[in-house]
UniProtKB/TrEMBL annotation:
It is an enzyme of class 1 (oxidoreductase). Residues 457-529 form the ACT domain. It comes from the Bacteria. This is D-3-phosphoglycerate dehydrogenase. GO terms for biological process: L-serine biosynthetic process. Pathway: Amino-acid biosynthesis; L-serine biosynthesis; L-serine from 3-phospho-D-glycerate: step 1/3. It comes from Hippea maritima (strain ATCC 700847 / DSM 10411 / MH2). Gene3D superfamilies: 3.30.70.260, D-3-phosphoglycerate dehydrogenase, domain 3, NAD(P)-binding Rossmann-like Domain. GO terms for molecular function: NAD binding; phosphoglycerate dehydrogenase activity. Belongs to the D-isomer specific 2-hydroxyacid dehydrogenase family. Catalyzes the reversible oxidation of 3-phospho-D-glycerate to 3-phosphonooxypyruvate, the first step of the phosphorylated L-serine biosynthesis pathway. Also catalyzes the reversible oxidation of 2-hydroxyglutarate to 2-oxoglutarate. InterPro entries: ACT-like_dom_sf, ACT_dom, ASB_dom_sf, D-2-hydroxyacid_DH, D-isomer_2_OHA_DH_cat_dom, D-isomer_DH_CS, D-isomer_DH_CS1, D-isomer_DH_NAD-bd. It catalyses: (2R)-3-phosphoglycerate + NAD(+) = 3-phosphooxypyruvate + NADH + H(+); (R)-2-hydroxyglutarate + NAD(+) = 2-oxoglutarate + NADH + H(+).
Length: 529
């Protein structure tokens, strides 16, 4: 008999699933004071929660028997994943249940921005004004809608927008082009192209270091006059100060916004504009989505308790009993190499081939799995783990192949990742473990070098000319960026050179542009491992 405690309100449909399970003892404690709640969970095998219950280290200290935490929703910010993992507790979430609700909410905001319906409704009902001329709208038909991020929600928004007769332009460097063109959308290679041609722009990306404030003052200036902006994804993707200035100047015709950088918001400066349509994070708030989420999390918790599967587990790791200690270190290296590739390429990776040599030839499948986890964590707005990575890779069109490395090499054990992206472009990165806890990158695209893949790394490619390295150091020093390690590889004198520069501080894009302006520079990228 398993004891399952529901700590927050979920749909009746989810409760019914739990009640029908013969070996589940169900308790509902959604009305219990949150401070007292942990003391009542000492013998619980599983708990189901929403965002209002904070499950931190102190909370978990009371849950001596806990095996599964089910989060009825997407976000797990209220759960201490590290502490749960240390205690062997599986954490599950429901990333897909809210998809349709968020899609329709986006469309609602878009239509409001086109026709100003809330304003007209207010004036008619409460000010008793019948003013048809004042609320002259514009049509979605024939407009160009730019969609930033073509995941589950963005792709559904595209289909609905096109049903109105609008054109769709997509920017998402992490999807195969066919995903957009298959439904009749045009995919562009850079964000600027989308900004210049779109009448309406809606964003559907995860919130990461790369996407935080990705629409700022500079980007808004590149847009059409009278552009409409929508954000029903994550607060902080649009710079809210830049939005204010764009609205004040008239550059932005209207803004539909459901999420804010800091929530809750009761008196935001954006609220002073009549052409801002704001909602309090309602994207997931439909009866249907709550039913799907409740049913889904109930089934997932039961399956996890009974060992039938761990779908949408955010912290579970694969069994490693038959992998040697050396193999485990190579698995960690494989994940870091995958993370490096996705950050360095910054484009859709369609195929990765993993070559293994030496003792690690016996764990090529695991190496492929860990590599895909590293790649996907930087590509999608979901918690990627060692259980769901194969499914997510298949969904995104990422092919993983494993092979034995049969070429001559100086290393006893060697791992090589070959990534194929864009129009058949390829990049190779090789690594090895010299001794316990000394995993290193030793090769990249024909350049030999040795560096540990940790921290902030600048990858700089240039023509091998006198003075370039000094100029790089000078620029970093000018911006108080300390160099922790500098490794240089080259194929021949005065040919091309490749540098891995480890720095103690994060480097912003402006500094990278400054380095790239050096005479002889070819390319530059930053990664964080």
């Amino acid at each position: 008999m398993y004891k399952v405690v529901v700590c927050d309100t979920i749909s009746d449909a989810g409760i019914e699933i739990l009640k029908k399970e013969k070996d589940i003892e169900l308790q509902i404690k959604s009305d219990v004071n949150k401070k007292e709640l942990p003391k009542q969970l000492t013998d619980a095998d599983a708990i189901i929660t929403r965002s209002s219950t904070t499950i931190d280290k102190e909370f978990l200290s009371f849950c001596e028997n806990l095996k599964v935490i089910g989060r009825a929703g997407v976000g797990v910010d209220n759960i201490d994943l590290d502490e749960a993992s240390k205690r062997g507790i599986v954490v599950l979430n429901m990333p897909t249940g809210n998809t349709l609700a968020a899609t329709e909410h986006t469309m609602t905001h878009m239509l409001n921005c086109l026709r100003f319906m809330p304003n007209a409704n207010y004036e008619l009902k409460y000010k008793h004004k019948w003013d048809r001329k004042k609320w002259m709208g514009i049509e979605l038909y024939g407009k160009t809608v730019g969609i930033i991020g073509m995941g589950r929600i963005g792709s559904r928004v595209a289909i609905r927008v096109m049903s109105f007769g609008a054109n769709v332009v997509v920017y998402d460097p992490y999807i195969p082009k066919e995903k957009a063109t298959k439904i009749g959308a045009k995919i562009v290679d850079n964000l600027d192209e989308l900004l210049k041609v779109s009448d309406i722009i809606t964003i559907h990306t995860p919130k990461t270091e790369e996407t935080y404030n990705m629409i700022d003052k500079e980007e808004i200036e590149k847009m059409k006059d009278g552009v409409i902006l929508i954000n029903c994804a994550r607060g902080g993707l649009y710079n809210e100060k830049a939005l204010y200035e764009g609205l004040k100047s008239g550059k932005i015709r209207a803004l539909g916004i459901d999420v804010f950088e800091n929530e809750p918001q009761l008196n935001h400066p954006l609220f002073e504009f009549d052409n801002v349509f704001a909602t309090p994070h309602l994207g997931a708030n439909t009866y249907e989505s709550q039913i799907r989420v409740g049913e889904g999390i109930a089934r997932s918790v039961v399956d996890a308790l009974k060992g039938r599967g761990y779908e949408n587990a955010v912290n579970i790791k694969m069994e490693e009993e038959e992998i040697t200690e050396l193999g485990k270190q190579f698995l960690g290296l494989a994940e870091r190499m995958g993370s490096f590739l996705s950050q360095y390429i910054k484009s859709f990776i369609k195929r990765v081939t993993i070559y293994a040599h030496g003792e690690i030839e016996s764990c090529t499948n695991s190496l492929g799995l860990f590599s895909s986890v590293g790649i996907l964590k930087n590509m999608i707005d979901e918690h990627v783990n060692y259980v769901n990575a194969p499914y997510l890779a298949k969904e995104r069109g990422l092919e993983i192949e494993t092979k034995i490395y049969d070429k001559a090499t100086e290393f006893k054990n060697y791992l090589l990742l070959e990534a194929e992206y864009d129009d058949n472009k390829k990049i190779e990165i090789g690594g090895t473990v010299f001794e316990p806890n000394k995993a290193r990158i030793v090769y990249m695209d024909g350049f030999d070098m040795e560096i540990e893949l940790t921290g902030n790394i600048i990858v700089f490619r240039n023509y091998d000319k006198p003075g370039i390295i000094g100029k790089v150091g000078e620029i970093l020093g000018k911006h108080n960026i300390n160099i922790a390690d500098f490794r240089l590889g080259r194929k021949q004198a005065l040919g091309e050179a490749l540098s891995f520069i480890k720095v103690d501080q994060e480097v912003n894009d402006a500094i990278l542009k400054e380095i790239l302006s050096i005479d002889g520079a070819i390319s530059i990228a930053k990664v964080k491992i």
